[in-house]
Prior knowledge:
The complex is a heterodimer. Chain A is of the alpha/beta class. Chain A has one domain (2-210): Rossmann fold (3-Layer(aba) Sandwich). Chain A has seven helices and eleven strands. In chain A, strands 9-8-7-10-6-1-4-5-11 form a nine-stranded mixed beta sheet, sandwiched between helices. In chain A, strands 2-3 form a two-stranded antiparallel ribbon. In chain A, helix 2 (69-78) packs across helix 5 and helix 3 packs across helix 4. The relative contact order of chain A is 0.18. Chain B has helices at residues 2-5, 8-35, 40-49, 67-78, 82-94, 97-102, 105-116, 231-268, 280-308, 314-339, 341-344, 350-358, 367-380, and strands at residues 122-125, 141-144, 149-159, 166-175, 178-188, 194-199, 210-220, 225-226, 270-271, 274-275. Chain B folds into three domains: 2-121, Acyl-CoA dehydrogenase/oxidase, N-terminal domain (Butyryl-Coa Dehydrogenase, subunit A, domain 1, Orthogonal Bundle); 123-230, Butyryl-CoA Dehydrogenase, subunit A, domain 2, CATH 2.40.110.10; 233-379, Butyryl-CoA Dehydrogenase, subunit A, domain 3 (Up-down Bundle), CATH 1.20.140.10. Chain B is α+β, with helices and mostly antiparallel strands. Chains A and B meet through helix 2 and helix 5 of A and helix 2 of B.
Amino acid sequence: MKIAVLIKQVPGSDSALPLTGDGTWIDDSLITFVMNESDNYALEEALRIREKINDGEVVVVSMGPDRVQRVIREGLAKGADRGIHLEEDGQIETDPLCIAKSFTSVLEDENFDLVLTGLQSDDTGMGQTGILLGELLGMSTATLGIETDIQSDTIRVKRELESGWFQWIKLPLPASVSIQSGINQPRYPSLKGIMGAKKKEIKIVAQSEHRPDTKWQSLNRLFIPQTNKQTETLNGDADTIVNRLVEILRSDLRII
Amino acid sequence: MDKLFFNDDHLMIRDMVRDFAETEVRPVAKEMDRKEKFPKKLVAQMGKLGLMGTIIPEKYGGAGLDMISFVTAIIELARVDASVAITMAAHTSLGSVPILLLGNEKQKQTYLPRLASGEIIGAFGLTEPDAGSDAGATRTKAIWDGNNYIVNGGKIFITNAGEAGLLSFTSQVEVNNELKGIAAFVIPIKTAGLEIGPKEKKMGWRASDTRQLFFKDLKVPPEAMLGQVADGFKFFLKTLTSGRISIGALSIGTALGAYENALQYATEREAFGKPIYKFQSIGFKLADMATEIEAAKLMVYHAAWLKDKGMDFTKQAAMAKLFASEMAMKSTTEAIQVLGGYGYVKEYDVERFFRDAKVLEIGEGTSEVQRIIITREILKDFKIP
């Protein structure tokens, strides 16, 4: 069983997010980067599957500038066998199809049985990489996995639906499954794991070797939402006030 | 500062311990302090992660890491809970290192892997009612009866004593009515003749287990001796020297915990229409705390770095311990002042950090003793006219 786990390095939730001068991305020089939360759960699920069947290989794959090697090393310290780093020069790509095509070009020759991704990234939050990758690699695909059950040539996935409903589905392998946060309890890397990670291989793929020539989406400008305080005084007789209050609660605040 | 002493491994170790401390320790820290509850489960978890054997060589089951890594782990634990940090630090630098420094191969093979994995906890008995910082005044006496040493006496303020599996301790040795000097021994703590006293009620470090030990005709076989007679005193003092780096690290963590609380509070709490950090009287307190924490970090990491390089670090460890512990007392006091009334009540953590800080000026050599050591060290190189 050969499992790939896609891991993205994203700004930590307590980082301030200053914008670059031209407003096209965040100024990441002052940001603390961390492993994307749901990717951490996907990695743990992959490690557990490997431990359960007592066979196989877990490969962590990440795209970005040099700094992303830290999350790859973290994955290796937790027990993944090797890493692949898709290099990006300059600003990171945000077009989901472009990202998926980059990963496809590197992963297609590896013949993975299973690709696990986090449900979505905590930065752009598009939630598309796992689905697009499944399609491009010709794999069966499921999203929002909250439990997995691996068989010899199939995987059963419990999916989270709306309103507290769940669904068990069975997919033939190879498959691409996106994993919801909370599916398991991710391990900490042990000190021995951290020291051992240095000896594990990280294959580096230059941007020119994976990035498609075409771009389908581009990001024009980012802005910080303006927040302001507005006070509205309700005047009139009781009926008018109550009607307006109900309207506010229903339409503006949507709490009734 | 991190860039001066850290490599990528140190960063990863820091992140791992910080994550562990925030996720596993923080939710239970307040309750453990209130109930004086020993962190048994956390010790087991730390054992699995390798944190109970950070600086023990790999061939004895440890992680084989350097002092910089050890200091980093202590700081991150103490930033959340000093009791957990001292439990780990005392287990390592006091409970395990003497065996590593002094033990023969058989003793190392027997005990170190079990200590490094956290299977058993180590304790260290040096302090006595009349011999604390003046360790030479040890009264506990081991008399050779031809087959065994028969030990009588006792030790006080022994960290981890009630939870430990193994005890290293110092004792005067007498053979044929002649005092031979101070030796060190290592024994399983459950040995007939060794009585463990009740848990001390303490101001701080309340989740850490501290007790008195009584030796009443305790029979110790000769193979339990660590090194030779007269080595004991010398090597135990050496243990204390590196133990001072641990207390320095604990001081930084304790101060950081309080400072971060104060910083957050100062940005949230408003008075006279603005957040209180905008008043110089509060802003400058925070600036002083941050500056002194940074200075203590440089001193403690420098002492650790010297030790890693195999250089003499006696003076730097004493200076780092002295400065960092007094800084911790000052910073935690100021943190309470920033929080005002909220700082004084137990709902907020700063009063816990304040209570945990005081012992740092006392344990492993009081501030006064550090100054004696520093005076001695600075005059070593000075030609007195």
